[in-house]
Design a protein that fits this description.
mainly beta, OB fold (Dihydrolipoamide Acetyltransferase, E2P), globular
């Protein structure tokens, strides 16, 4: 590989639902994954919450977004919003 070629870094990306947009430039994204219970074999839904950087404040509660890992922006924030997957439906 030449020194002139840019090396592309593999970054983690996750897709989840926005559960909070109250903080300035920050959203909270809920990631749900399904795993099999080790002992009983039942499929169990496990969730994780990540704080993601939203510079313009354009994502609202209920939106499905893709977030990618980045350098630490604050104590709890090391993810940025990459794109909007699905807009929240109005009820």
């Amino acid at each position: 590989m030449n020194a002139t070629q840019a090396t592309e870094k593999n970054t983690r990306t996750l897709i989840g639902r926005v559960v909070s947009d109250k903080r300035s430039k920050t959203i909270t994204v809920l990631i749900e994954r399904r795993t099999k219970h080790e002992l009983y074999g039942k499929i169990v839904a496990k969730t994780s919450k990540y704080h993601a950087h939203d510079e313009k404040g354009e994502y609202k509660m209920g939106d499905v977004v893709e977030i990618s890992e980045c350098r630490p922006i604050s104590k709890t924030k090391a993810w940025t919003v990459t794109r909007l997957v699905e807009k929240a439906r109005e009820v």
